[in-house]
Every structure is written in structure tokens, then in C-alpha cells.
Design brief:
transmembrane; membrane; mainly alpha; CsbD
Length: 95
């Protein structure tokens, strides 16, 4: 059994660390630090949200797996759109 409480806590800590890095990067003008902060925020949020999939009382992981198996093209479209949005956020043209 996965310890969802510690997994959620790790996600929240990582997201908070990302917010700090993002803010420090914005203040100092360090784009690399700011991008790293955004990545930390996203991965922390994903870890926090993903821990809900392991909830013993609900079989969300099974539901997600079934959705992907039943609708592979829709799932691929969703993942592609998310990747495009993240790419746009992280690699914006400046000037």
C-alpha cells in the first residue's frame, strides 16, 4: 500500500519550493531559475494529484487506465495538448 499522506506532503513541499524558485528567478531576472521553478511547481502538483489515484476506497487508477484503453486517440490528444501548453509556457519567445 502506498502512503498517500507522505506522497501528498512531498508534492506540496515540491510545489512550494517551485513557487519560491519561480519568484526568486523573476526578481533576479534569471530565466533558467524561473523555468526550473515552474517545472518544480508542475511536478509537485502532479505528485500531489497523482497520490489521489492510489486512494484505497476509490479505484481512480483503474478508471484512468480504462479510459486510456477505451479512448486511446482522445488520451493522446489530451497529452499532446498538455505538452503543447507546457512547451509554450516554458519556451516563450522574448522580444
Amino acid at each position: 500500500m502506498v502512503d498517500t499522506v507522505s506522497m501528498k506532503a512531498e508534492g506540496l513541499v515540491q510545489e512550494a519550493k517551485g513557487r519560491v524558485k519561480d519568484a526568486v528567478g523573476a526578481i533576479s531576472g534569471d530565466a533558467a531559475m524561473q523555468a526550473g521553478g515552474k517545472i518544480d511547481q508542475l511536478s509537485g502538483r502532479a505528485k500531489h494529484e497523482f497520490s489521489d489515484l492510489y486512494d484505497a476506497n476509490e479505484s481512480r487508477l483503474e478508471a484512468v487506465t480504462a479510459f486510456i484503453q477505451e479512448r486511446p486517440f482522445v488520451s493522446l490528444g489530451i497529452v499532446s495538448l498538455v505538452g503543447l501548453v507546457i512547451g509554450r509556457l516554458l519556451f516563450r519567445k522574448r522580444g
